[in-house]
UniProtKB/TrEMBL annotation:
Organism of origin: Cinclus mexicanus (American dipper)
Record localization: Membrane
Alphabetical keyword list: Calcium, Membrane, Metal-binding, Repeat, Transmembrane, Transmembrane helix
Domain C2: from-to ranges: 1-59, 93-204
TM stretches of this protein: none
Listed GO MF terms: calcium ion binding
Calcium listed as a keyword: yes
One annotated Gene Ontology cellular component of this protein: synaptic vesicle membrane
Classification via Pfam families: C2
Superkingdom of origin: Eukaryota
Tagged with keyword Zinc: no
GO BP term (any one): regulation of neurotransmitter secretion
Predominant location category: membrane
Protein name listed in UniProt: MCTP2 protein
Amino acid sequence: KSANPQWREQFDFHYFSDRKDMLDIEVWRKDNKKHEELLGTCHVDITALPAKQTNCLELPLEKHPGSLLMLIAVAPCTGVSISDLCVCPLGDPNERQQISQRYCIKNSFWDIKDIGFLQVKVLKAVDLMAADFSGKSDPFCVLELGNDMLQTHTVYKNLNPEWNKVFTFPIKDIHDVLEVTVFDEDGDKPPDFLGKVAIPLLSV
């Protein structure tokens, strides 16, 4: 019931050089649980923004009245990585020793915000649902922790995909839940849902 909403939400997107350079934003209105209406879209060219500073942007909505006020900062990623299983970041004994020392009891209060990190090895999926007429799926896996999201590549025409990827997330809240979702890539259409599992960090 507002034409001037204030959200005051922060989202972290991990921008890699091999991804597209445009940030696409959509504003939607909900009448009820079933009806939604698009109120407008806008786009931000990430490459045009000055790095290592907070940019205050007022973005007019395309083909619709209104605008969005946003703060966008482009900064180097810290603590986030995607790697192959054969070059797992924690596979080096020296690195494991450094991390053990970094999080030992005597260093607990050295950096209060540095709670720790989560490393997830996504190996494979088994007996997925067939989403295509061919009796196969084009599955990829999305990992979400808080507002952080990373994903695997797509394995085409396969119900038993193997990804063998290692994902590393910085932990910002020990009460967060890791959500792992498998989707079927469907060209230009939204991906189809194939399954999901949720793992509270406190259970790890």
